[in-house]
Design brief:
Largest sheet: 8 strands, mixed
Shape: globular
Distance between the termini: 37 Å
Radius of gyration: 17 Å
Helix content: 25-40%
Strand content: 15-25%
Order of helices and strands: HHHEHEEEEEEEEHEEEE
Structural class: alpha/beta
Strand order of the largest sheet: 6-3-2-1-7-10-12-13
Length: 202
C-alpha cells in the first residue's frame, strides 16, 4: 500500500478548496459583481492604510475575480499613484507604475498587466497592496492559483506594505489549507465585512 505524503495531502486539499471556492464564485450574477465592485471600493477607501497611502498596487482581475477598476478610479481621483504587477518568469512578480487607463496588456493566464518597458517600482514605494485570491479564511490565510507569485513578492522583505485581500463573501471559509510559506493577509475586505488579522507575520 502506498501512502500519500504530507505535501501530497496538502496539495490535494488545496485543489479541492480551489474547486469549491471557484464554483461558489461563479454563482454570483453579473449585476451583483458590478454592485460588489462599488461596495468593495467603498470599504477599502475607508481603511486608514489606504486613506493615508501615496501609492497602491492593484491587480488585473480575471472575469471571476472581484473587479478593482472602481477602486482604481476612486484612488486616482484622490491623487494616489497606482502600480500593477507583471509576471517576470518563475514565481516572480515585478512592480510597475501605471499612470493611466488603457495601457495594460494581456499577459500570462489571460490577465492584464503592464507592458514590457513600463517604468518600474519597488515594494518599498508602495503604501498598500490589494491582493486577489481564490479563497480566504477567518485567520487571514489566502489560497491562490498555486503559482506562489504573491507569496514570493511579499516574503521578499521583512516589512512589506499591508496586504489587503479583496474577495466576495462566497470565497471566505472557516479554514483554507495553507503552509508556512503562504503569506497571510493583514486585512480582508468583502462586500459585507472588514476583517483585520495579527500584524506580526513570518
Amino acid at each position: 500500500m502506498v501512502f500519500a505524503s504530507a505535501d501530497e495531502e496538502l496539495d490535494r486539499a488545496k485543489t479541492v478548496m480551489r474547486l469549491r471556492a471557484r464554483a461558489a464564485r461563479r454563482t454570483i450574477l453579473p449585476e451583483m459583481r458590478v454592485a460588489h465592485a462599488h461596495t468593495l471600493a467603498e470599504r477599502i477607501l475607508q481603511l486608514p492604510e489606504v486613506t493615508r497611502a501615496s501609492a497602491v498596487m492593484l491587480y488585473g482581475a480575471s472575469p471571476e475575480e472581484a473587479d478593482p477598476s472602481v477602486l482604481e478610479d476612486a484612488l486616482r481621483r484622490l491623487g494616489k499613484r497606482i502600480a500593477y504587477p507583471r509576471v517576470a518568469g518563475g514565481r516572480e512578480l515585478t512592480i510597475h507604475w501605471v499612470d493611466s487607463h488603457g495601457v495594460l496588456v494581456e499577459g500570462p493566464y489571460g490577465l492584464l498587466q503592464p507592458a514590457d518597458g513600463t517604468p518600474g517600482a519597488t515594494l518599498s514605494e508602495l503604501s498598500a497592496i490589494v491582493v486577489p485570491g481564490v479563497a480566504f479564511d477567518m485567520d487571514g490565510n489566502r489560497l491562490g492559483f498555486g503559482g506562489g507569485y504573491y507569496d514570493t513578492l511579499l516574503g521578499g522583505t521583512p516589512t512589506p506594505p499591508p496586504a489587503i485581500g479583496m474577495a466576495y463573501d462566497e470565497q471566505v471559509f472557516d479554514e483554507v489549507p495553507h503552509e508556512d510559506r503562504d503569506r497571510p493577509m493583514d486585512i480582508l475586505i468583502t462586500p459585507t465585512r472588514t476583517l483585520r488579522f495579527a500584524t506580526s507575520r513570518p
